[in-house]
Amino acid sequence: MSKDLRANIRTIADYPRPGILFRDITTLLGDAAAFRQAVDDLVRPWTGARIGKVAGIEARGFILGGAVAHQLSAGFVPIRKKGKLPSATVSVAYSLEYGLDEMEMHRDAVRPGERVILIDDLIATGGTATGAVQLLQQLGAEVIAACFVIDLPALGGVRKIEALGVPVRTLVAFEGH
Ligand code: AMP
Question: What CA–CA distance (Å, rounded) separates 14 from 111?
Fold first, then answer.
């Protein structure tokens, strides 16, 4: 039976700052049936789609992306905060709510023309995912889709990624931010 994944996502008010409703997926990850369903729902459109790599955004995108990559028999690529990857990297600045940060990927993590899907737990303003798409495209990857468990539609991130020519798939939405 299909579960309502929203019921497995815990909301913490005023974390990490006053006014933010933090959508906590640790409760979803800790529920065997919900975790399996989230991964199955993320994977479903791409079965047989010749996906070469799944790229996950640190840190929650690693948990979901690793499981998705396994199920698609694809490789996994970590997109990490600056300074964490040991070999030669490409980097991009991306916008946070206040200011900028940098994320990195190994230069040899994807091949030109390789078919990649991007995974993270949640899309809000789309700033983080935009940076990740730019890194992958800079290395010549074909970004087939960006996939998230949670969309916060009020913040407009999905439109931002679609404007880069990348289709977006999300599983559940929460109003507000
Ligand atoms: P954004 O770059 O604005 O799309 O933010 C997305 C990134 O920030 C993701 O990696 C999320 O895990 C995290 N994030 C942003 N807003 C929230 C929220 N309300 N609850 C949980 N995580 C969030």
Answer: 42
Nearest CA to ligand 1 atom 17: 22
Quick one: CA dihedral 22, 25, 27, 33, positive or negative? Answer: positive
58 as an active site residue: the answer is no
The number of the ligand 1 atom at minimal distance from the alpha carbon of 177 is 19
Q: Which amino acid belongs to residue 24?
A: D
Could you tell which of 25, 125, 128 is best to mutate to test the pocket of ligand 1, judged by most ligand atoms within 8 Å of the CB?
Answer: 128
pLDDT one-digit tens code per residue, 84-121: 999 999 999 998 866 789 999 999 999 999 999 999 99
DSSP conformational letter for 86? -
